[in-house]
Specification:
Layout (H helix, E strand, L loop, with lengths): L15 E6 L3 H4 L8 H15 L4 E6 L10 H9 L17 H4 L6 E5 L9 H8 L4 E7 L4 H11 L3 E10 L3 H14 L4 E4 L1 H7 L2
Parallel strand pairs: 1-2, 1-4, 2-3, 4-5, 5-6
Amino acid sequence: MQTNEGIRFGRLGDCAVHLCIDMQMLFAAPTEWHVPWMTGILPCVRRLAEAHAERTIFTRFIPPDSPEQMPGVWRRYWQSWQHLTRERIDPALLELLPELRDLAPPAAVVDKQHYSPFLEPALPNLLRDRRVDTVVVSGGETDVCVLATVLGAVDRGLRVVLATDALYSTSDRAHDCLLALYRERFSQQIEAASIEEILAYWR
């Protein structure tokens, strides 16, 4: 079986962007969505974003005001997490981590109400305007929003590079399983590499 280890398809050029998923206070603060891993990967995320701040796009997961605003099973989902809707939470929880805020600008910030930022018009429009052909993905969660983001990018024909030491999840098992899936089943679309290797290939 062909695996997907490291950078396999050449250097990252001017048409690459760093797409950093949901590095927000919502997941760092002591809420029910707290992810301890996030602080552990923060130095790697910061290093990558700082190296290419003008080529970095941060996403923020923005809850609806209330469950009634959302269609289908999203309404049921937010009824279960009603205390984390915008009408109830501190708006400061939606902000990027303090260690990343000084990078935006020049980094861009794109808000989303779904797992995948590709379902919002802002990100596809931004990538098209910048003629992006490659996304370097960091952030979290590996098995939720990163998964949706990666598949959205693959479906659009973008080259995807996963920053393996800059991803977080609440589940070690799911994180490991998803990294194996990315490497083994998407060998032509996805590369998985460390921050060190990514920066060596993207100067």
